[in-house]
TrEMBL record:
Its EC number is 2.7.7.7. It is an enzyme of class 2 (transferase). Signal peptide: none annotated. Residues 368-617 form the DNA-directed DNA polymerase family A palm domain. It catalyses: DNA(n) + a 2'-deoxyribonucleoside 5'-triphosphate = DNA(n+1) + diphosphate. The keyword GTP-binding does not apply. Keywords: DNA replication. It comes from the Bacteria. This is DNA-directed DNA polymerase.
Length: 652
């Protein structure tokens, strides 16, 4: 099949990074400036659309020809911009994304990083960022540049020629990356999933613009009030200034050598020498709350039809291929605990901020509770929300053949109660409200959430967010959970041994349920039952400084530091990767099934789907039944989904 490789350079007055591609191409001044392409291994051609150069008719035909595969690095951008500029539909089934392919192999998701890691002969032109800034984004009007708001080719013909060469080089590099990665192809079913992901992102989800703007206005009003109170209390011109505030606190006898970040606030509040100092610290604490960050992100990404698009990235967490949140970051939305959400959101929408605060509390708290409710269905439709119950606990029990846990999930499903009964040797029937043993449920729940991936005392402490357990009990709880789940414990060590052996002997080591570790061409693959594989780049064995044994290390992106660096892993972490990857594949299977049944999924958050369904069609029972169906590649895995219908997004 013929491959058409593409790279475009564009202009828009909308900021691509903060607003997303879909808002970017909505701008009235959006246009494609340069269009570079190459067929297979042929020459790379660059067409200057600003000079009214028309693309060849055969290229225009091939953009919609299903017999020609279109490829690009971050193909969502090329798909979107080409579709908008030429007024055509770019069917994602006809496209392949080289960035997605790189992510599936544990590589960076940006072209320059992949080229460097792969040590390619072709490298991305380092001058690109400066050229993009000059030609592709607005500039500030100055007397020097003739008060213009953007730069055109005729403003610097020499730079323009460099920009054309840069566009051409991107096709060269993308092609070399794709050819290098071709040895490890993405399974065909995953390209179909990627195409579905593109359609979900293109569809987007509707936002309540009135609620969103009211939240932003409410926060601004509240902050103005706090600043005024702080100024009156301290006499400072700018109480937001850390330097001024620290000096004021020092004058009142409160030293703050570690700054005023939130982790130090409890101690500072306790040490406050008087009521005024205490109140000022409270104000500082309130002003530091980021209750409207999500609403501001919504305001940046909302389109003219009130929909936000491009909120999910396929394989964004490339260790497991799980989706990552983008723009609004729907993967980490605050939970809602206000009982009457409908009243709270309607009060906010009316702009009666005083009544909102009187009924529900301080604005930062209330606004964070209402973030989810800003996502609303289309007119004449409602949301159907459904998610997998305890999916990771089910998957790890299935992988480990922990029979008693599987039996629980095949029966009543009360895993926290059953775990507590098993850990403490008490009858399951006694762990009910009103019985003295009910307090054991909290211990069972924390243990299930913390211990499955070889977590110890620190993991228990992190999961025990409500501090329901005496810390002195942590060591005993860890041991009790491990004793109650011997097969899961064995799975940690078997998995680590399989991975280490595969690397040491450059071989393949099989585990259970279709999982195996395979060393090939300088890569360690964890083959999954779904038919895809997790990848660990440049795996090697190094002495573990904490244990007297060889440990497994590999290279990869650090999700926090955004750097390519060395990572150390172990049995529990490897099992976590397997479990989360298989849980992701269960969600992927459900997304495909729901699409086949005609449900329009707008977004999905971890193990939950949100479908926008016409009133009178479909049902939550049907959606949950689809998600609960057995999966052919995971025989015996007991899946269970449950959900609800709603007029605005919320946590049930």
């Amino acid at each position: 099949m013929t491959t058409l490789r593409i790279d475009v350079e564009t202009f828009s007055s909308v900021d691509l990074k903060t607003c997303g591609m879909h808002r970017y191409i909505e701008a009235p001044d959006f246009e494609i400036l340069l269009f570079a392409f190459a067929y297979d291994d042929g020459p790379v051609w660059v067409y200057d659309l600003t000079a009214f150069e028309d693309l060849p008719a055969y290229v225009m035909d091939d953009l919609v020809n299903p017999a020609v595969i279109k490829t690009a690095f971050n193909a969502a951008f090329e798909r979107g911009t080409i579709g908008k500029h030429f007024g055509i539909y770019c069917d994602p089934l006809q496209w392949r994304c080289t960035a997605a392919h790189a992510l599936t192999l544990g590589l960076p998701g940006y072209l320059e990083g992949v080229a460097e890691v792969l040590q390619l002969d072709a490298q991305k032109d380092a001058r690109g960022k400066a050229l993009i800034k000059y030609f592709s984004v607005p500039c500030k009007p100055t007397k020097t540049n003739g008060l213009r708001e953007r730069n055109y080719p005729h403003h610097d013909p020499e730079k323009w020629e460099l920009y054309k060469a840069y566009c051409q080089q991107d096709v060269v590099v993308e092609r070399e990356v794709a050819q290098k990665l071709a040895r490890f192809p993405v399974p065909a079913h995953e390209w179909r999933l990627w195409a579905l992901d593109q359609r979900i992102n293109d569809r987007g989800v509707r936002l309540d613009r009135v609620l969103m703007q009211a939240a932003i206005d409410c926060d601004a009003q509240y902050e103005t009030r706090l600043v005024a109170e702080a100024q009156e209390l301290t006499g400072l011109e700018n109480p937001n200034s850390l330097t001024q505030l620290k000096a004021w606190l020092s004058d009142r006898g409160l030293e703050t050598p570690d700054g005023l970040s939130k982790e130090f606030m409890p101690g500072l509040l306790e040490a406050a020498p008087d009521d005024e100092t205490h109140r000022m610290l409270e104000i500082r604490q309130e002003m530091g709350k980021t209750s409207v960050d999500k609403f501001n992100a919504m305001a940046r990404s909302i389109g003219g039809d009130d929909r936000a698009r491009g909120l999910l990235q396929y394989c964004g967490a490339n260790r497991t291929w799980r989706w990552a949140g983008r723009l609004i970051q729907v993967q980490n939305l605050p939970q809602n605990k206000i009982e009457d959400l409908a009243l709270a959101r309607e009060t906010l929408r009316t702009g009666d901020f005083d009544l909102l605060e009187m009924l529900f509390g301080a604005p930062p708290f209330v606004l964070s509770q209402l973030v989810r409710t800003a996502f609303v269905p289309s007119d004449g439709r409602r949301f159907i929300v459904s998610d997998f119950a305890a999916i990771e606990a089910r998957v790890i029990a299935w992988l480990a053949d922990e029979k008693w846990v599987l039996d629980v999930f095949k029966g009543h499903g009360k895993i926290y109660e059953a775990t507590a009964a098993n850990m403490f040797g008490v009858p399951f029937e006694t762990i009910v409200k009103g019985h003295a043993n009910y307090e054991l449920r909290a211990r069972g729940k924390v243990a299930v959430l913390a211990c499955g991936f070889q977590g110890g005392e620190r993991a228990l402490e992190a999961m025990d967010s409500k501090k329901e357990i005496d810390p002195s009990e942590y060591p005993r709880l860890v041991q009790q959970w491990r004793d109650a789940n011997p097969n899961i414990r064995k799975l940690w060590y078997a998995t680590e041994n399989a991975a280490v052996t595969a690397v040491r002997e450059k071989t393949t080591v099989k585990l259970k349920h279709g999982v195996q570790y395979r060393y090939e061409a300088g890569m360690l693959f964890a083959d999954l039952p779904s038919g895809r594989s997790l990848a660990y780049v440049n795996p090697r064995l190094k002495p573990d400084p904490n244990f007297d044994k060889e440990g497994l290390v590999f290279d990869g992106m650090d999700q926090v530091k955004k750097k390519w660096m060395c990572h150390r892993t172990y049995g529990g972490r490897l099992v976590e990767n397997l479990v989360q990857a298989i849980a992701r594949d269960c969600l992927a299977e459900s997304l495909g099934r729901l699409d086949d049944e005609g449900y329009e999924v707008n977004m999905h958050v971890h193990d939950e789907i949100v479908a926008d369904a016409e009133i009178g069609t479909g049902s939550v029972d049907h959606v949950s039944e689809i998600m609960s169906r057995p999966i052919s590649w995971a025989p015996g895995l007991p899946l269970k989904a449950a959900g609800f219908e709603c007029e605005f997004y919320q946590k049930d």
